[in-house]
Amino acid sequence: MKFNSFYSPFYILVFCVFMLSCTKNKSVPSQQDEATIDTINSFLELSKSDTIPAEKKLAYIDKSYQLAKKVNIDSVIFQTMNRKGELLNHYNPDIALPFLKEFEQVATQKKDTFYMGHSFLNLADYYSAKQQDSIAFSYFNKSKIQFEYKKDSSLVVYSLLMMSSILKNKDDYYDMEAVNTEVLNFINQTNRNYNFSCAYNNLGISLKETYDYKKSLGYYKKARQYAEDESTRIIIDNNIASVFILDKEYQKAIILLSKLELAKSEVVSEKIKSKILNNLGLAYFKVNDSRAVGYFLKALAIREDQNDEYGLIGSYIQLANYYKSKENNLLAKQYALKAYKNASKMKSIDERLDALQILVNSSSENESRAFSTVHFRLNDSISEVRQRNKNQFANIRYDFSNQKEQNQKLSTQKAETTLLLEKEKNSTLLMYFVILFLLGITALIINFLNNKSKKEKVRVSYDTETRISKKLHDELANDVYHAMTFAETQDLSTKYNKETLLRDLDNIYSRTRNISKENSFIDTGADFVPSLRDMMANYGNDEVNIIVNGLDVLQNTILETNKKITVYRILQELLVNMKKHSQCSLVVVTFKKMEKNIMIEYADNGIGAQTEQINIKSGLLNVENRINAIGGTLTFDNVIQKGFKVRIEFAV
């Protein structure tokens, strides 16, 4: 069982690698497939040729599509489907829809974001050509979102500009402004000038229609700055002139339009020329100049010759207004009726309303009442329809923006989950390694600390033994030798000699006991304070009086064991130093508690010591080292012949 449990994951891994390698090899085209792909690419290029008739282009793209299905490589299939969709939209839209729907379905099933965008774009172009604006707008918005995922800014810009065109047709100028503002965020180096010119021109239109003439002129001037040819600049100049007329700057409009009128016919199309002439007639009409009618009639002649049905509506309305101002109601009514008829045919609501308003003012009472009723009914219905359209397009943009945000959140969450699982999977061995490494480091540290502790204990023991040996040699050896010599050389039967010897031996015993106490066990438990008091009292005698104040402070304060030992040893060192050097008769030790600190003040009335003498006295150096070890401070305050003072302070 152990053998099987160990090797089964290995065999599973080998099998997975084998399957993956098989899958990988399957996606690599064979030599025959490569030859077929070359043929497909040649057919695709032929379908793009401008010199081939439409029937042949469609035949070539059909052949490439059938070959792509045989090769069965998604990217090749999608490429041919996209091209076929474009050609059907252009040359045979009546049979395009089923294929475009198939393209959308396949791209969506394969979850190919790029070609989903293209399938949506082909459907958007189809519905736009069929004037099904709401469906077209929805598909343009879908394509924009997909191309935004793929960071294809040129196609994002195209989709947004087409959405802008639909919003313009629906007179939804506020959303039009918002869409073109978004366009500016996606324009890159590809067709940069053309796209900027389009976006700024659209912004000029939307601001003009919402009566912000100053901003409108600013955007038109930017559009003109990015215009790539003279024809585009003339179109934008004509738009600028229309703003001048609306803003009642008629002379500026006349000067600009007069220059545009002189433009060469190869630069300006007849359609644009008719707009220039019509605007120039309107500018003259606003300043009551008789030249107005001539320009209106010139524009009308061109539009009739070009069969410009929408342009004719404008000409008829301008002539109707002109003759109405001249109180020629007969001609005003004739032109207004023509405008109304064409506007109804073109489903142009605003122009129908303008024509009806002229008819109301230029007709007989009964006719005027009838036209007025139609005007009110049409105006009410169109207001409702326009509001519904605005809400519809706004909802489409909001719904897809919301969906985009949700998709981005889901994608982010999915990516984070996948990354988390991958990290967990890849980090298992690392975690084991880190644990083993930490265990090894911990073992080394513990071993190091144990060795260090042992060495420290040996060093402390050695220092203690050395200090005891030194004290025995310095303080007791000579006295013992003197006592031995005294006992050998003196007659101990006499009372004086006997008392002298006993006094010397008692002094030796007393010193031996003190050395023992200096290195004895310190009780840090409940009897610490009494033990400390006894230790200090032992250094007093008939010649030296030791006074202790405030010792209860330590009784009422919880101190760590190491701090109790430090306090004990420091005071012991100070009292030993006092015995040896101070020649004092009075010692005062005071304990105080100040907030979270303990302060101990030692003072005697001995001879004192200079700083350099303090530094070389090993006992006082031990005091300083001990207090530093618990994070405390030690302050010496001494003057020769005026005593010795020390202040010790440390945190509780």
Automatic annotation (TrEMBL):
Report domain Histidine kinase/HSP90-like ATPase positions: 564-650
Q: What is this protein called?
A: Histidine kinase/HSP90-like ATPase domain-containing protein
Q: What parts of the sequence cross the membrane?
A: 429-449
Annotated Gene Ontology MF terms? Answer: kinase activity
Q: Which domain of life is it from?
A: Bacteria
Q: Does the keyword Transport apply?
A: no
Q: Which UniProt keywords apply?
A: Kinase, Membrane, Transferase, Transmembrane, Transmembrane helix, Two-component regulatory system
The Gene Ontology biological process terms listed for this entry are: phosphorelay signal transduction system
| Pfam families per the UniProt record, alphabetical | HATPase_c
Q: What is the organism of origin for this protein?
A: Flavobacterium degerlachei
